[in-house]
Design a protein that fits this description.
Length: 358
């Protein structure tokens, strides 16, 4: 029975819904250490695997496998015949607070080796710049590079994050890390994301919830999102500060002055096929921040797929229904053609030559 009291109960129960998010698709752990879990989402597929690198921005890695119809994992399984892996990042502990970008790259390296190089590397948001660094340092490990809402040219086009890092001094971010005892608190990061769209997060979301309080499907979707969005994870304060200063403030990845594992990261080392996906309404990572990688990589232009997803905000680029039904299948098909068709034709011609010689 719908009564004002029942409506209020539904509203408050939904608004306060919390819990640890989980991957929705069947999977098994391939590898686990103090920093990561490597998960495989198929049993018997062969070939170069797809390795998804989720963001570390205070939230859980299950965004790559968020919900039915909103799962990049399921899209990859449906539209390719390749094994699919996801890196699950663990919340940083005090013993890990000194981890650097070097450590992040080594963690990816472990996962690439366990999955089986070469891989199709798919970097989402903050996982995108990490995947790009890895592809530049170890190009032989990466068959193709796919980036979604990933900042690469950090200062291109401006945007809200650039406004913030250009306004607040580095000591402000150092203070935030000190508040976390050397880690960057996931709760503080979440508050920062909310403040970037304060009216939407603190007013509009609750107005919409009240308007739809008798819509059970709406309540279910809201609870699912809250479990992911409100569940926070800490990250190492040291690599967080490195990213703020060297990437977001100084744009060293584009300038070629970012040093990782004792060498400068040269984007010209990337010559594999690229798929670059951006959101039309993404105010976190603007379109040129993603697409400008084509200006610095050595990949031929005819092996670069670029897409702007209509009406998509930031996370909708890699978990929105529109993107997963249209742009991602097109990008996966493009990568399959660009990365493997020439190889296949060469192999076929070699076999023909051997047959003729025989």
């Amino acid at each position: 029975m719908n009564t004002p009291y029942a409506d209020l109960m539904k509203f408050f129960q939904t608004a306060s819904s919390r819990g640890k998010p989980e991957f929705i698709s069947p999977n098994r752990k391939i590898f686990e250490d103090k920093a990561v879990v490597l998960r495989r989402f198929d049993e018997d597929r062969t070939g170069d695997p797809i390795l998804i690198v989720p963001p570390q921005a205070g939230h859980h890695s299950s965004i790559a496998d968020y919900a039915p119809g909103q799962s990049l994992v399921q899209t990859c399984l449906k539209h390719t015949a390749r094994p699919v892996y996801v890196i699950e990042w663990k919340s940083s502990t005090l013993s890990r607070r000194e981890e650097t970008i070097d450590d992040l790259v080594q963690q990816v390296m472990l996962c690439v080796k366990k999955a089986g190089a070469p891989v199709v590397l798919a970097g989402l948001c903050q996982g995108g710049w990490l995947a790009t660094i890895y592809a530049a340092l170890f190009p032989g490990d990466v068959r193709a590079l796919m980036l979604a809402a990933a900042p690469i040219d950090f200062t291109a086009g401006g945007g809200k994050i650039q406004d913030i890092v250009n306004t607040l001094p580095l000591m402000y971010y150092q203070y935030l890390v000190n508040c976390g005892g050397g880690n960057m608190s996931g709760d503080l990061m979440l508050m920062g994301w909310k403040m970037m769209n304060a009216y939407d997060r603190f007013v509009r979301d609750y107005l919409n919830l009240w308007i739809h309080v008798r819509d059970e499907n709406y309540l279910k979707r809201t609870k699912t999102f809250s479990r992911w969005y409100e569940y926070t994870q800490d990250i190492s304060g040291r690599w967080y500060l490195e990213a703020v200063e060297k990437l977001f403030m100084q744009n060293r990845l584009i300038k070629g002055t970012l040093e990782v594992l004792c060498e400068y990261v040269d984007l010209q080392n990337i010559s594999c096929p690229l798929a670059l996906l951006a959101g039309e309404r993404d105010d976190i990572t603007l379109i040129p921040q993603v697409h400008n990688l084509e200006l610095y990589a050595s990949t031929p232009r005819d092996q670069i797929f670029k897409a702007v997803i209509p009406l998509a905000g930031h996370i909708s680029v890699f978990m929105g229904r529109r993107a997963l039904q249209h742009e991602w299948p097109a990008a996966l098909a493009f990568v399959e053609e660009a990365a493997y068709s020439i190889k296949g034709r060469i192999a076929a011609s070699d076999l023909t030559g051997l047959a003729a010689a025989g």
